[in-house]
């Protein structure tokens, strides 16, 4: 080796450590950039965007519900990611989940199905002194034993509310079907049976209707189907619903916000739930489900394919479009005259932004509706916390009870002749739309 070559090798050898250090720094910078982007760390916190009409009730509610107007602060390191909020809700549900003690009720239906719900008595008196029952509808394939439901029920019990939680037909483990159908996107039969039982068992109680995700669609549809369904109902709260399945189906096939991946995961979970009841669905003589339908179910990779091969057939819908049209609350929600709080999150990966035009438009026509849109929260997440660890109660848990408390006191302080007459109340309200954003 010549002296010149030896010199070049020496120079290169001395430069290699510096080059490796540069590569390491570049790799670290890249990882940090990806983390900041994925975790959305630069996104500022803000109060929810509140859309409502300028009425005495709206002003009272916003004054009485500071959570609707003050800054919502998710955990700093991961709470600004709608994906992580959604994933953590899906995996762990809540922090330090309580175990409320309830009684399971069984309700035989006219078609042979057996509806079930769990009843949890209040752990104290309500601040108004009234008997008030929350009738709660969980999300898709969920029931009273889910962590987010247990946490919300425990919080509501401690504030003086009796709680009745519907167990979606076919959702409870080890509970066999007694008719050849399961829950669907908008079938209100079981929820109506639960509400009817509560009204008969507690003739003095007033009702607060609460729905989460799919449950939000179902309860809004239930109230709008028949005016009598709103008797003795103080208010309704819907959280993270999509309002129109027909409009949502196309967005669920898109890859933005990983929506197509969520579609696959939800479909897989629903598929497993249906297959756990395949013997009941096939053996009952009145079943509309056959071996060919189950074969298509095995190959399904999306909710739409499952809805088309199985779910729509429970009620004899001729097409997927008809199923989505008839079971979506968008055609019924405008008939709801009780105070209605609709809550969504901008970073919800399951609910496309285009669907939020529905509640915004509704507030332009309905003085009883308030639409709250948070910047962060994901799908049924809404965790709160300082840096890393979230609080046991979420913003969602607290805001529902806070809004409900305000409605209860508003109703309590109204003249007796006007109580529970929401049609008269709405006709007297002004119809100027106001948008409040942080």
CATH architectural label of the largest domain: 3-Layer(aba) Sandwich
CATH homology superfamily name of the largest domain: Alpha/Beta hydrolase fold, catalytic domain
Can you tell me the residue ranges where pLDDT is under 50 for at least 5 consecutive residues? Answer: 28-34, 421-438
- Main β sheet profile: 10 strands, mixed
Using the alpha-carbon principal axes, give the shape: globular
Calculate Rg over CA atoms: 25 Å
Integer count of domains: 2
Total strands: the figure is: 10
The ordered H/E elements are HEHHEEEHEHEHEHHHHHHEHEHHE
Helix content: 40-55%
**Strand residue content:** 5-15%
Could you please say which CATH topology of the largest domain applies here?
Rossmann fold
How would you write the strand order of the largest sheet? 2-3-5-4-6-7-8-9-1-10
Overall CATH class of the largest domain = Alpha Beta
User: What would the average pLDDT be, to the nearest integer?
Assistant: 88
Which class do the helix and strand fractions yield?
alpha/beta
Number of helices: 15
Question: Between the first and last Cα atoms, what is the distance in angstroms?
Answer: 72 Å
Domain AB hydrolase-1: 133-386
Membrane topology: Single-pass type II membrane protein
Subcellular location: Cell membrane
GO molecular function: acetylesterase activity; monoacylglycerol lipase activity
